[in-house]
Design brief:
The complex is a heterodimer of chains A (203) and B (224). Chain A has 203 residues and is α+β, with helices and mostly antiparallel strands. Chain A contains 10 helices and 7 strands. A 3-stranded antiparallel β-sheet of chain A has the order 2-1-3, with no helix packed on it. Chain B has a 5-stranded mixed β-sheet. The chains are: A alpha+beta (203), B alpha+beta (224).
Chain lengths: 203, 224
């Protein structure tokens, strides 16, 4: 919020955005005030690059730190691949205060369109097959067996419900970037800024 | 994302993947293929599962290379995770249309990274959407016969395969395509009038495939 107040142009853009889209405002209220900063970043995020490895995110000049079971990692020192730890233990990433306007590029019309387009999309949980239909066709055992054979067995058993606000937040900020020659992903999940080395997503 | 830890984003075995060859193996065509060109019933359902679980596409009939890679891994039982392709899908979701159905996948990621605020988030109301036979009947993929058996449609409904059919289960036999043109080996439908697209009802005869063997397999040529 301090950053918004410090930058009049950004503040005007956010106020304009709030007035134009009540849905946008409601979502901010539902979450917390830090989301204002999140969406401010969206307004100023760099233009996306379609390459799988995109770019260093906005906080490239900052000292992004990530604590994982009291083990400190720095963005300049990617953590070693330890899937077990990352999969089962809470992760906390602190977003540093940005004090350099050069770290944030002006939001393009393309990004504005992206923000608008994803707001109006319909969000739905992942579909599942009717088990009785598969039984009727003799595929009820084979499908999970084949899917398990390539290592996606857990994904076949879909028991999770979906959340619109969480998915919205995830997709709006999700991006990949390269650091020290390794691909990383960055996203925000329920206010937590997550930066993970690419291969951790496997497990 | 809950893939097996044995999965490799870049498996050595996947280097044998060739799009044209694999398209030919599963459809008998080397040109651009669509969903209906896949002949193996198991692969059809696996392809559709990929479409609404990992690679979110409203256009379920299109076949993209990323899905072909997964099908290739399924056929050859290769531990493979398409995490790079899924990430690309996340990045390109703005270019797609239709509902965003990766919400459950995001929930899965949030649970795995241990977000403690999960209970504060409202989930999308309602149960998980279930794909029943009506979905496939509408898509002209399945047909329910008068005796409530189920047939899989081929070539616009002119040919059908009665299910279940153990001969065409994936991994049961080393074959992925069927003899669609060997009508002399097929017999007429006796289960009621055919439900075909185009023309008056019953104007096109419906055939059940009865010869499961691929000529290439019988001749001793490698099926893949």
């Amino acid at each position: 919020m301090f950053y918004l107040l410090k930058n009049p142009l950004l503040l005007i853009l956010v106020i304009f955005k709030l007035k134009c889209n009540n849905l946008f405002f409601n979502e901010i209220v539902v979450l917390n005030a830090s989301y204002v900063c999140l969406h401010a970043f969206l307004l100023y995020r760099e233009s996306p690059n379609l390459d799988p490895v995109r770019h260093t995110p906005h906080f490239k000049g900052g000292s992004v730190t990530m604590s994982l079971n009291s083990q400190q990692f720095s963005s300049s020192m990617p953590p070693q691949h330890d899937a077990a730890l990352v999969s089962h233990h809470p992760m906390h990433v602190e977003m540093p205060p940005i004090d350099d306007d050069n770290n944030i590029s002006i939001h393009s019309q393309e990004d504005l369109a992206w923000v608008e387009s994803i707001h109006v999309r319909e969000f739905a949980p992942t579909r599942v097959y009717d088990v009785s239909l598969l039984e009727h066709m003799g595929l009820d055992i084979q499908l999970p067996t084949v899917i398990r054979s390539i290592g996606c067995g857990k994904l076949y058993v879909e028991t999770h419900s979906g959340s619109r606000i969480m998915t919205l937040e995830f997709l709006m900020i999700f991006e990949t970037y390269e650091h020290d020659g390794n691909p990383w992903v960055f996203f925000i999940c329920l206010g937590k800024h997550i930066s993970l080395i690419f291969t951790i997503l496997v497990s | 994302m809950d893939f097996s830890r044995n999965c490799m984003p870049k498996s050595q075995a996947m280097r044998n993947f060739n799009r044209l060859d694999f398209c030919n193996d599963i459809s008998g065509k080397t040109a651009r293929i669509r969903f209906v060109d896949i002949q193996n019933p198991s692969l059809r359902f696996l392809h559709r599962w990929l479409s609404f679980t990992l690679f979110l596409m409203w256009e379920l009939h299109s076949i993209i290379v990323t899905k072909l890679k997964c099908l290739f891994a399924m056929v050859h039982r290769i531990k493979y995770t398409p995490v790079a392709d899924i990430v690309d899908c996340f990045n390109e979701i703005c270019t797609l249309y239709g509902p965003i159905e990766c919400t459950s996948l995001v929930t899965r990621i949030a649970l795995n990274i241990g977000c403690p605020e999960m209970h504060k988030v409202d989930n999308i109301e309602g149960d998980l959407p279930i794909i029943s036979i009506s979905h496939f009947v509408h898509a002209h993929i399945l047909r329910e016969e008068l005796d409530h058996s189920i047939s899989m449609l081929y070539e616009g409904g002119n040919k059908v395969l009665l299910l279940p059919n153990q001969a065409y289960l994936l991994h049961s036999y080393d074959q992925l395509i069927m003899q669609l043109n060997t009508l002399e080996n097929a017999h007429c439908s006796i289960l009621g009038p055919p439900h075909t697209r185009g023309g008056p009802m019953g104007s096109i005869r419906t055939y059940y495939l009865s010869a499961p063997w691929d000529t290439r397999y019988e001749s001793g040529l490698p099926w893949y």
